[in-house]
UniProtKB/TrEMBL annotation:
Domain annotation VOC: ranges: 3-129
Transmembrane segments: none
Top-level taxonomic group: Bacteria
Coiled coil ranges: none
Pfam family, one: Glyoxalase
Protein name, entry field: VOC domain-containing protein
Cited InterPro entries: Glyas_Bleomycin-R_OHBP_Dase, Glyas_Fos-R_dOase_dom, VOC_core
């Protein structure tokens, strides 16, 4: 069993952050004030703090011919859950940094991945492994 992690990160405002993580991604909302808000992010604790001066434009690094945001966070979902989320995000018109696709198809470590930004410009990656036991496969 994995234990939850905690991540605190800057956002521009509470309203758009609440709508994005709570309404769009379906994260349960925990405690909040006008300066911060907690989310149950797929079993992990996220704390979004209003601090727009801490936001930076994501720099990228080339990976498999794609420009991957270096600073990013996200969740590893079950295969069907990932596909359901990808479909929902497409329906909602999310502007993907990297469109949903399958990496290493038919190989060890086959995985689905997608990247997009929250309303504050924080990069998120959601991924899934066809065989969850291969999450750390080489």
């Amino acid at each position: 069993m994995n234990t939850p992690f905690h991540l605190a990160f800057p956002v521009k405002d509470i309203a758009s952050t609440r709508a994005f993580f709570g309404d769009l991604l379906g994260c349960e909302i925990g405690r909040s004030t006008d300066k911060w808000i907690d989310f149950n992010f797929f079993g992990h604790q996220l704390s979004a703090h209003v601090k727009p001066e801490e936001l930076v434009q994501a720099q990228t690094n080339g990976v498999d011919g794609k420009n991957v945001p270096v600073r990013h966070f996200g969740a590893v979902l079950e295969w069907n859950q990932w596909h359901d989320l990808a479909d929902k995000l497409k329906t909602e018109g999310i502007d993907f940094v990297i469109e949903p696709y399958i990496r290493f198809e038919g190989e060890v470590g086959e995985q689905a991945t997608m990247f997009f930004l929250d309303p504050s410009g924080n990069a998120l990656e959601f991924k899934s492994f066809k065989d969850p036991s291969q999450i750390f496969a080489k």
